[in-house]
Recover the amino acids of this structure.
């Protein structure tokens, strides 16, 4: 029988292929024809999340954030309160409300600020804060708010006795609370019971305004839960910074939850039965429990906060409680009294001890819960059982995927979890004896080893639980800190107790993909039992690869290369061993990825592991410390049930063991093979015994592998067990295990040709054989892998070969899948793939370098990665799929460095011979070679424009090449320039981002030289050779890197672990940081560093770690450190889109960046493309938001400034967050303060300027405006807030939005015909003035005066012909001044009694600001181009005249214009300039006496109190200045110096500051930015919290989820945002940088369970991304179109995605695999505007199918199709074409062609579009004709049909919305938008209507229907 295997298409290795082997080319493509593109989906469920996959908690122990490309959940933010209620006349809402989330209060459970007591008094009253202070903070100074040293609390405190609970004076009791006598404790206890826990409780103290003030680190709760009941324990704990945290424990909780102000732990109650529910009711026989809570560690580990004191305790039903105690001592509950006094433990005081009858054990009667456990400490010596009390040996809890305290009848080793175990009446406990352990063991849950140092950081090692779809290993801060997460496996963690400041989110990186295979061995590759995935090691990482999708998930935790793997028969347990001695073995829960156990093997190097089929037995083989072979058997059956791994037997053997297997039919029998021996083993009792098989003449063979024959029906065959063994000589022996004799011996011989060109079949006979390295059996065949590179499949009688596949290198491992249809093979050359036997196709799964990677480079256009390695290959990879594309091999010389040409499909490579060659990626060949160097190439880099290339060599020469020439000839070669001994590194040479500068280390190791890149003229030489005190040697430079050109920074890493930031022009040191090293770890210099394009993150490669620094933070909080590499990291870099990080060493790791990218306006260059996820503090309350429940607490905002919403904060265009393209009409005077100039939207024709409009009466309107989403960031001073009254208003388009801080309800004040430019609130807060731009229907701008209390417009005035730039009321509210923009230059004065124009004047130059003197109502000032104008108002009767006095700005202030002003303490006037200066004027003397540089950008806003000044600039910086001494400096005149003025605080926001309102003391306020965001600013806390934000640019689509609980929007800013529909609270945001999201679709309900809801988003680059809403992660990214997508939708079953693009193509793709299986080109040439899908209900259409769908294109054609995608059927039903006149543009817009199926009649479709008439056309598919036409006043821009009622919504370019009742033919028109209504969408229930115009979203309530 002859069979063939198809060769690998385009394969460089020509393998696997069948029968013949083609010649090898130097460079060939390496993609597999059968390989599937690797998807990007990562599934990870996080505890505490309402939506699976989202993260809750700011600094919780979950650790890593989610989302492969973007996962930006909703933020926990403050909604601005008013002044504090205790301030006289202040106003405070009962709850603060965020935008978008609602908050029920500030603090914990709505409590106010608290101040613990300073003395030993029972209760400490709370300190009342002063006026206008944020409600979560007290008024006193920080020191006054902390408890004084409380010696009276030592050594312990009896809480019930001290606070006299029995008297109920200082405590509260509620419900059924009574004192009863407990028989076990033989004393009185409190019984709290009741069906509702919240209604039955004991609370200490009685009032929430008081505090216990208990400072003890440990809280001891002595209680017993009542059987079959639930209980709750609430603790209110105050941190050192006076933030109150609610910590709760209960068996009511199903999962761990964490926010910034709440920790919620499930208390797991575990019965010792085979079947048990870990979370739920208390089982019978629950014991008294000694709950020991380490409050300090709980706050530190889960929230990264410092413990202050215990504020209050609430014990809720149902439980018995004896007492509460606090202490700084850690007591051992089972040890009490004098006999234990000499032990190194603290005995339990007799008062706290439980009674133990004589002769009984404490642990047999009671339960001890220590949370977090003290067993986290790493012992300095091996633990000995003899000298330790029972607590020295700690067991793990049962399996839980969540952090929760674990209570056990034995001490708990560690579980972030209490699990209470109670004996089962039917099950007997049988625990194996516990042997002394020389290594800390962990059973289940987590292990944390801690060695604490009083003066240094504490070291934690966390063994996490994980659903390892994607994993992170990271450490952070100046100590280091790692948090575990359900989606991660974190091997090590460090925590610096003294460092709490970190840059967020933490972690910033998450491991996404790994390129590599093998490491220690390429023999380890396994199938999972279901045959869907392959498990293999990649150095220290274990990878699980889904073979059909290419998705990877990881098991992280090993610190060295993995040497052995084993998987049990059910696929539930995975065992892995690492190579470095002493060998550590880990057991994993394979399904969840949780590390169940870590233990040290007595074998020093484990080379083989084998599980029994049930997983109860694990055998390992290796060498002991004497080099003898040892076999160890471990019992693993109890690992998943709370037990430990037990050594069952050990045996030494003098025989060689190469392979070892446990039989599948008898778990006590094993087999091994090696040099000259095949032995059968048996485990009997606690002994391992073996006997040899009589091999006869084959006893000299070197056996390499073995396998047992399996029965065809899958049943065991112990009576006929046959063992197959292979050897290096080609022999395969078939051994009878019963008789221990060889039944058959066969030999694989090489191919022999007998006089013909065709090879003959391989035979088994005599002659020289082919070395067989591995074999694997299925019931029908035997797979053999041999050293000649062939995988061969034989029948079990070996009569003839069935299939064979040739590989490029020797086959090292083969494995047949459980179904016998696929054969996995691995080669020693680093290739892993499988042969699909039914199709005879070989699929390549992974390729890898066989030696460490030396350097890497990325290419932006094609998304490719180039790597060079010590294996002498250069390989090109696809970054999207992680598949190899090409490789180039050189046998004579080794490649050293590589770089891509920035614009051409070319890469350059430097070699050890000194040659530099260019390679074509298109032709896969060498283009040009230069050999001007004499030594190995050490550096290679090109300028960003691709014109120049530079190279350096090991002999110090530097070469410059002209890359503009196709031959890129050499321009210059300079000798002795570069440090000769510099190692080859990507950071050896560095070119600045603008291509003007070249930097390198040289000519000596102690100097860094900067040259002009074009001329090679030396510009700068910096000597960094300072004395390193640690080594006694001069410091030397290791790597160089340029920052963004706007910064002008040059970064240099040194051998003494410093990073120096130099000024690239002057060489001065800007700052210097010391690279963090772990205590006791030898410091390793940084070999590679890279700064992100936005200068936010600095990457460093140091040793085996990747370090990430927050470059923008001056006070450096330390790095985050990521481990995972088993060898030194050689290179790190950012991906071309700046969204991912690449690190290369032993393998190539691809990390997702989970943090936001800073929007720093100093860098005007294009922002990098980025797709991303979640930032940290932004997932804090996603659970409550997803369920639409009101949040009960206000999480404390992140300490990062500001907490950012999306992964990409950089705006897609413009320097400050918005694009200024709206007002591009008539030219106007250029204004340097353009960031403060109002840019109105394009003037649109009013909605009532055409005939046919129908405005309904107010009483019978069908629509009512319910909510507005967004804030107009292009206004100026268009937000007002009064803390004393709580009035809060801002503008959005043409609307004034007034928001009630009590309820979050909005009022909308319409009336303006154009966008509102500015607001002003009178000093009495009774009148609000608003001004708008000029509309097309009016000649003057409109100013409206509103009554604040009634919301009515009282006056309508107009005078200015151009936009009103500023409004201001006089101090006595008698006058209103209005200022026209720099085109109108008009200043007008109005009397507020009648609002008549009092005075008006034309200004000689543009003026940018006006303000009244608050101390003198008769004076006002204006600032403009180089002058300050003072106006004095003189009133004579009813007439008011203006006297003008102008003062020139002194030259000392510098060039630029005055852009802002505010009055300070009399007689001071502060003015800001466009150059960033602040100058101070004496208004009495009319002179400027002081100035200082306040910012880099223009100062657009100034606000002042008596001694504090707030400045806001175009760079987004908000700064607080102490200006108290300025009044005294006024006396010095021009001699005043600005040294007395200093900056107190600084916050960086997301755009130019355009509006601000602060309280009188400037402690807190609201600030608006050009990015359309309103921030709440608290200077006391130094935080900025996002209040209101919307899309920055045009909203393109709104879709609704099944059940109508959520909606999603997408916009041209690249974001996809998910909102809770009931409250319009933002829940999740997915962000992609530099791409516009043009269309969006939500999967239908029928596609799966609710938790599997997905979004399909189409982008401008032709890509289509599938996002999982439940897991807040991107599941899939595909590229079905070459151009921008215009529409996307799901099929009715949700399994298929239909997408259309601007070229008219419609692609049909699988939503799960991403494969595009059909493309329709019927509409080609015109953009697809709509695709609408409905279920086919009309049966008389004459076609078959389940779906009916239509596509409409811009050429007025509509095609209707019937399809059944599961059967791959698609038939055309109808084709409609509509005529179009020559010109149909309306208001500058081309009306789109829109069509939709009628929801109330499946046979009808409606069409609107350009035509001869403005109308809606209704077409009947059954009759094939138009049945009705509805006339319209304008051409429609948007269309939506109500599913529930016969309503039709249409949007027009004339800013109007029309609602048509199709049943009656009546219509109503509505105004409110400021631009063309390009989008309208009904909700599925038809209760709401969403409309969008540009970035404004209005939510209408459909009423009266």
């Amino acid at each position: 029988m002859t069979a063939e295997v198809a060769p690998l298409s385009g394969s460089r290795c020509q393998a696997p292929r069948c029968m013949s082997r083609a010649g090898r080319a130097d460079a060939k493509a390496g993609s597999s024809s059968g390989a599937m593109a690797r998807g990007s989906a990562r599934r990870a469920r996080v505890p505490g999340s309402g939506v699976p996959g989202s993260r809750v908690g700011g600094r919780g122990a979950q650790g890593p954030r989610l989302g492969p490309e973007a996962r930006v959940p909703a933020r926990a933010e403050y909604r601005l309160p008013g002044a504090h209620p205790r301030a006289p006349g202040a106003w405070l809402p009962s709850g603060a409300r965020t935008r978008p989330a609602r908050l029920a209060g500030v603090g914990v459970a709505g409590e106010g600020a608290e101040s613990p007591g300073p003395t030993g008094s029972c209760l400490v009253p709370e300190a009342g804060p002063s006026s206008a202070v944020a409600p979560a903070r007290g008024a006193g100074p920080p020191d006054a708010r902390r408890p004084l040293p409380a010696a009276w609390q030592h050594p312990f405190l009896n809480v019930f006795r001290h606070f006299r609970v029995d008297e109920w004076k200082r405590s509260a009791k509620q419900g059924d609370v009574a004192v009863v006598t407990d028989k076990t404790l033989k004393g009185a206890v409190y019984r709290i019971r009741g069906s509702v826990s919240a209604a039955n409780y004991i609370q200490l103290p009685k009032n929430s305004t008081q505090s216990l003030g208990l400072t003890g680190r440990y809280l001891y709760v002595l209680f017993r839960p009542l059987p079959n009941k639930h209980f709750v324990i609430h603790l209110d704990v105050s941190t050192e910074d006076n933030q109150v945290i609610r910590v709760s424990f209960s068996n009511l909780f199903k999962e761990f939850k964490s926010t910034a102000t709440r920790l919620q732990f499930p208390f797991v109650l575990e019965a010792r039965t085979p079947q048990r529910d870990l979370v739920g009711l208390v089982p019978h026989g629950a014991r008294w429990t000694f709950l020991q809570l380490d409050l300090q560690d709980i706050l530190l580990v889960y929230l990264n906060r410092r413990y202050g004191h215990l504020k209050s305790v609430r014990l809720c039903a149902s439980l018995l409680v004896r007492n509460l105690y606090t202490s700084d001592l850690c007591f051992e509950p089972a040890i009490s009294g004098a006999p234990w006094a000499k032990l190194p433990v603290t005995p339990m005081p007799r008062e706290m001890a439980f009674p133990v009858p004589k002769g009984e054990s404490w642990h047999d009667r009671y339960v001890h819960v220590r949370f977090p456990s003290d067993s986290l400490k790493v012992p300095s010596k091996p633990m000995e059982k003899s000298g330790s009390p029972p607590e020295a040996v700690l067991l793990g809890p049962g399996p839980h995927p969540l952090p929760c305290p674990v209570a056990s009848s034995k001490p708990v080793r560690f579980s972030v979890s209490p699990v209470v175990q109670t004996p089962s009446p039917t099950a007997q406990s049988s625990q194996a004896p516990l042997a002394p352990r020389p290594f800390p063991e962990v059973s289940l849950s987590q292990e944390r080893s801690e060695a604490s140092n009083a003066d240094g950081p504490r070291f934690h090692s966390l063994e996490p639980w994980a659903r390892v779809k994607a994993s992170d290993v990271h450490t952070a801060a100046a100590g280091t800190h790692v948090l575990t997460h359900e989606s991660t496996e974190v091997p090590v963690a460090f925590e610096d107790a003294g460092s709490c400041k970190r840059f967020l989110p933490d972690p910033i990186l998450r491991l996404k993909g790994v390129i590599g295979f093998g490491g220690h061995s390429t023999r380890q590759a396994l199938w999972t039992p279901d045959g869907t995935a392959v498990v293999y090691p990649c150095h220290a990482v274990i990878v699980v690869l889904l073979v059909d999708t290419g998705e990877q998930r990881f098991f992280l935790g090993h610190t060295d290369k993995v040497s052995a793997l084993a998987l049990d028969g059910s696929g539930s347990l995975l065992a892995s061993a690492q190579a470095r001695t002493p060998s550590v073995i880990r057991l994993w829960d394979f399904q969840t990825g949780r590390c169940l156990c870590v233990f040290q093997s007595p074998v020093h190097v484990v080379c083989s592991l084998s599980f029994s089929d049930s997983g109860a037995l694990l055998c390992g083989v290796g060498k002991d410390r004497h080099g003898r072979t040892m076999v160890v058997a471990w019992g693993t059956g109890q690992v998943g049930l709370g037990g430990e791994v037990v050594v069952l037997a050990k045996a030494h053997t003098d025989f060689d063991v190469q392979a070892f297997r446990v039989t599948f039919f008898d778990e006590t029998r094993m087999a091994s093979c090696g040099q000259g021996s095949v032995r059968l083993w048996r485990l009997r009792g606690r002994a391992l015994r073996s006997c040899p098989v009589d091999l006869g003449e084959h006893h000299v063979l070197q056996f390499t592998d073995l396998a047992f024959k399996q029965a065809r029906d899958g049943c065991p065959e112990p009576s006929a067990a046959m063992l197959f063994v292979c050897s290096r000589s080609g022999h395969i022996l078939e051994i009878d295990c019963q008789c221990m004799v060889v039944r058959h011996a066969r030999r694989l011989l090489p191919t022999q040709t007998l006089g013909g060109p065709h090879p003959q079949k391989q035979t088994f006979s005599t002659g020289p054989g082919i070395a067989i390295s591995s074999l694997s059996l299925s019931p029908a065949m035997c797979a053999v892998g041999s050293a000649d590179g062939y995988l061969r499949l034989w029948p079990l009688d070996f009569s003839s070969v069935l299939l064979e596949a040739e590989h490029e290198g020797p086959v090292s491992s083969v494995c047949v899948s459980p179904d016998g249809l696929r054969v996995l093979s691995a080669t020693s050359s680093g290739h892993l793939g499988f042969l699909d036997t039914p199709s005879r196709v070989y699929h390549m799964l992974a390729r890898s370098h066989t030696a460490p990677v030396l350097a890497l480079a990325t290419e932006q256009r094609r998304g490719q990665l180039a790597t060079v390695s010590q294996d002498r290959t250069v390989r090109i990879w696809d970054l999207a799929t992680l598949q190899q594309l090409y490789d180039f091999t050189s046998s004579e010389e080794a490649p050293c460095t590589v770089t891509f040409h920035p614009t051409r499909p070319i890469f350059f490579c430097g070699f050890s011979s000194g040659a530099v060659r260019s390679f074509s990626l298109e032709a896969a060949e060498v283009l040009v070679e230069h050999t001007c160097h004499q030594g190995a190439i050490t550096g290679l880099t090109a300028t960003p424009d691709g014109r120049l290339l530079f190279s350096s060599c090991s002999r110090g020469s530097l070469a410059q090449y002209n890359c503009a020439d196709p031959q890129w000839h050499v321009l210059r070669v300079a000798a002795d320039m570069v440090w000769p001994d510099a190692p080859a590194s990507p950071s050896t040479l560095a070119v600045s981002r603008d291509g003007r500068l070249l930097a390198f280390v040289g000519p000596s190791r102690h100097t860094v030289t900067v040259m002009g890149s074009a001329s090679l003229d030396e510009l700068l030489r910096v000597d960094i050779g300072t004395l390193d005190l640690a080594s006694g040697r001069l410091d030397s430079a290791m790597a160089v890197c340029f920052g963004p050109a706007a910064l002008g920074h040059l970064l240099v890493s040194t051998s003494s672990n410093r990073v120096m930031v130099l000024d690239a022009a002057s060489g001065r040191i800007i700052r210097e940081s010391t690279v963090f090293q772990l205590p006791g770890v030898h410091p390793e210099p940084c070999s590679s560093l890279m700064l992100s394009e936005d200068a936010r993150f600095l990457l460093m490669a140091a040793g085996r770690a990747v370090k990430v620094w927050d470059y923008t933070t001056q006070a450096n909080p330390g790095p985050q450190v990521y481990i995972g590499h088993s060898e030194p990291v050689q290179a790190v870099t950012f991906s071309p889109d700046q969204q991912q990080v690449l690190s290369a060493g032993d393998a190539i790791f691809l990390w997702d960046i989970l943090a936001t990218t800073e929007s720093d306006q100093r860098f005007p260059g294009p922002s990098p493309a980025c797709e991303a996820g979640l930032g940290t503090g932004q997932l804090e309350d996603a659970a409550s938001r997803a369920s639409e429940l009101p949040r009960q607490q206000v999480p404390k905002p992140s300490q990062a400034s500001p907490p950012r919403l999306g992964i990409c904060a950089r705006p897609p265009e413009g320097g400050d967050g918005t694009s200024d393209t709206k007002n591009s009409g008539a030219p106007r005077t250029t204004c340097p303060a353009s960031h403060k100039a109002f840019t109105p939207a394009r003037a649109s024709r009013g909605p009532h300027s055409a005939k046919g409009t129908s405005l309904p009466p107010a009483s019978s309107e069908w629509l009512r405006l319910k909510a507005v989403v967004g804030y107009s960031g292009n206004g100026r001073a268009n937000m007002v807030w009064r803390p004393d009254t709580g009035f809060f208003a801002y503008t959005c388009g043409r609307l004034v939005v007034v928001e009630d801080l009590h309820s979050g309800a909005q009022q909308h004040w319409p009336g303006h015909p154009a966008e509102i430019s500015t607001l002003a609130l009178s000093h009495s807060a009774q009148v609000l003035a608003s001004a708008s731009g000029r509309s097309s229907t009016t000649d003057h701008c409109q100013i409206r005066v509103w009554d604040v209390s009634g919301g009515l417009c009282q006056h309508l005035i107009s005078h200015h012909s151009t936009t009103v730039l500023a409004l201001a009321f006089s101090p006595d509210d008698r006058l209103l001044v209005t200022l026209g923009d720099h085109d109108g230059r008009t200043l007008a004065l109005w009397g507020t009694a009648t609002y008549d124009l009092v005075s008006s004047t034309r200004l000689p130059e543009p003026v940018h600001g006006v303000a009244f003197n608050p101390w003198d109502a008769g004076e006002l000032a204006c600032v403009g181009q180089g002058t300050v104008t003072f106006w004095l108002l003189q009133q004579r009767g009813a007439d008011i005249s203006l006297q003008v006095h102008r003062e020139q700005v002194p030259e000392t202030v510098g060039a630029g214009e005055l852009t802002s002003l505010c009055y300070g303490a009399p007689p001071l006037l502060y003015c800001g300039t466009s150059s960033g200066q602040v100058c101070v004027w004496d208004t009495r003397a009319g002179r400027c006496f002081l100035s200082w540089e306040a910012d880099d950008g223009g100062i657009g806003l100034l606000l002042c109190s008596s001694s504090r000044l707030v400045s806001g600039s175009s760079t987004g910086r908000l700064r607080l200045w102490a200006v108290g001494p300025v009044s005294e400096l006024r006396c010095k005149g021009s001699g005043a110096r600005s040294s007395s003025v200093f900056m107190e605080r600084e916050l960086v926001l997301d755009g130019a500051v355009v509006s601000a309102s602060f309280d009188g003391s400037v402690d807190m306020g609201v600030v608006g930015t050009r990015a359309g965001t309103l921030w709440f600013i608290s200077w006391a806390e130094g935080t900025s919290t996002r209040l209101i934000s919307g899309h920055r640019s045009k909203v393109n689509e709104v879709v609704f989820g099944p059940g109508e609980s959520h909606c999603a929007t997408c916009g041209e800013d690249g974001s996809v945002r998910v909102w809770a529909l009931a409250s319009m609270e933002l829940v999740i945001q997915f962000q992609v940088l530099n791409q516009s999201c043009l269309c969006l679709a939500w999967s239908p309900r029928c596609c799966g369970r609710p938790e599997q809801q997905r979004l399909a988003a189409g982008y401008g680059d032709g890509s289509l991304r599938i996002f999982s809403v439940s897991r807040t992660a991107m599941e899939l990214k595909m590229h079905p179109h070459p151009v921008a997508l215009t529409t996307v939708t799901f099929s009715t079953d949700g399994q298929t995605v239909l997408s259309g693009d601007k070229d008219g193509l419609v692609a049909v793709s699988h939503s799960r695999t991403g494969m595009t299986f059909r493309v329709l080109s019927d509409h080609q040439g015109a953009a697809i505007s709509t695709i609408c899908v409905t279920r086919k209900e009309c049966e008389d259409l004459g076609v078959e199918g389940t779906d009916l769908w239509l596509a409409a294109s811009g050429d007025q054609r509509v095609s209707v199709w019937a399809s059944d995608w599961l059967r791959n059927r698609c038939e055309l039903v109808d084709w409609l074409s509509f005529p179009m006149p020559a010109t149909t543009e309306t208001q500058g817009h081309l009306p789109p062609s829109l069509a939709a199926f009628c929801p109330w009649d499946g046979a009808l479709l409606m069409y609107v579009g350009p035509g001869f008439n403005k109308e809606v056309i209704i077409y009947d598919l059954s009759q094939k004709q138009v049945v009705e036409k509805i006339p319209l006043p304008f051409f429609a821009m948007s269309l939506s049909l109500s599913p529930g009622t016969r309503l039709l919504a249409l949007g027009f370019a004339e800013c109007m919305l029309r609602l048509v009742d199709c049943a009656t033919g009546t219509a109503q028109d509505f105004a409110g938008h400021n631009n063309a209504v390009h989008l309208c969408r009904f909700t599925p229930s038809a209760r709401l209507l969403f409309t969008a115009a540009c970035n404004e979203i209005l939510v209408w309530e459909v009423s009266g229907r």
Summary: The two ends are 76 Å apart (CA to CA). The CA atoms of residues 274 and 1689 lie 48 Å apart. The chain has a mean pLDDT of 76. The longest strand covers residues 307-316.
